[in-house]
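Supplementary Note 2. Why include the ligand at all?

Several targets in our set were suspected to adopt different conformations when bound, so apo predictions alone were not considered sufficient. For every target with a known small-molecule partner we therefore ran a joint prediction. The input for flavin-adenine dinucleotide is given below.
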Amino acid sequence: MSLVDALRAVVGERQVLVDADVRAPFEVDWTRRFRGSAAAVVRPGSADEVVAVLRACAEHGAAVVPQGGNTGLVGGSVPRGGEVVLSLTRLTGLGQVDRASLQVDAGAGVTLAALQGRARAAGLDAGVDIAARDSATVGGLVACDAGGVRAVRHGTVRARVAGLEAVLADGSIVRRTSGLLKDNAGYDLPGLLVGSEGTLGVITAVRWRLVARHDARALALVPLASLAEAAELLAAVRPLLPSLDACEFFTDEGLSLVLEHLRASAPVELRAAAYVLIECAAAADPLEELAAAFEAAGVEDALIADDTTGRERLWRLREAHTEAISAAGIPHKLDVGVPIDRLAPFAAAVHEAMPPDARVILFGHLGDGNVHVNVLGPDPDDDAVDEAVLRLVAGHGGTISAEHGIGVAKAGWLHLTREPGEIAAMRAIKAALDPGGLLNPGAVLA
Ligand SMILES: Cc1cc2nc3c(=O)[nH]c(=O)nc-3n(C[C@H](O)[C@H](O)[C@H](O)COP(=O)(O)OP(=O)(O)OC[C@H]3O[C@@H](n4cnc5c(N)ncnc54)[C@H](O)[C@@H]3O)c2cc1C
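The joint prediction is reproduced in token form.
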């Protein structure tokens, strides 16, 4: 029996996509930088079908690329040539919130927006937010250990995983979904699968840990003369803000591009070199706390938004960066992390290292030292840009991937951020769980 027939026998004919036109959206990533053709796209509707699909692929020696919402930014969610794309978007089961444990069971294909909706209806919050919330899935978020704008308060997605269910390359199941806070019987296999980017197993469901919902919010946009001042501001106010919920930064280059893209005018009369967006959230209005922290830190200029419309308007300036950059061209997109006090020297070094005609846009999650470096202009396939930025990151004591993952985009540079012994251990784990190298080959480990 051919591979396609074997897949059809498992999931039914309609859920195996072979026509080039129908496969096309699954074969190119969100950035349009990464693409390849798939042998087929298969869309299982249950964990049992995932088991049978992986067994069929193993029997045929077919490599598999797991895919959720396909919003990943490092090329790990699309085929490189001839793999089967395993789309998990039909796994949309979403349980009722368990109010005693503050947890909920979500299928891998549940979108972040749907999960947030379920949490909010129960008076709670998902504890994670990213601009791709309407498409990004629970499985993809966990597979990437995504971060986002609330990580400064709640940690990355890893902190939200109370347990998960996953299928390994040979079709065996790892199921740890009791949600017990204390369960240290043996190795933490779910912990190993978080951030494994589809290379060690296919996540089919997640037991998600929710957080308290804070409805009273205050948001401030602070214009500053430099990124060094941004880092100083954070250090001055952070200890005074127990309600700190997000702390983001962008620069005037990025703001100009966003305003062009949105056809909007600047909300700040005084344009500045850098901007910090600080949001506080609590059960009671956190505006007084924020104002007191700003006074102590000597902040004179700040645009405060304490109603929903004003907050959405300011957040749009930050959240529209990714789409505005994408609309302007195919960028070199490097999600990196540096110690917060290295942010300004790192940014200066990046500007200096880029070709003079390049448009360099830096923005990101200041509270996490997480910088999204975007370079427009140089050929997207010119690795020299990526190499230069990633070497600078390593030189500043940072990481080449903060929250987007390694994918295929950075697999060749893992050695800049991980020691040889650590990479050898990663290879040993990969060989033990996926000896045929069938799960997402080429991602994470080149
Ligand atoms: C506008 C925009 C804003 C973004 N903002 C952020 C942000 O603030 N923070 C952040 O961290 N990321 C951000 N991202 C990146 C992206 O949304 C996240 O990486 C997200 O976690 C990807 O989820 P997904 O379902 O789209 O996964 P996909 O893109 O489909 O896949 C991503 C990776 O996970 C693997 N994978 C997917 N599903 C599974 C599964 N069920 N089992 C095993 N492996 C799987 C894939 O093989 C691939 O390697 C943003 C992206 C966009 C487009």
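The radius of gyration is 22 Å. Residues 30, 65-73, 76-77, 88, 108, 130-132, 135-137, 139-141, 143-144, 146-148, 197-198, 202-203, 322, 403-404, 407, 440, 443 surround flavin-adenine dinucleotide (CB under 6 Å). Comparable summaries for the other entries are listed in the accompanying table.
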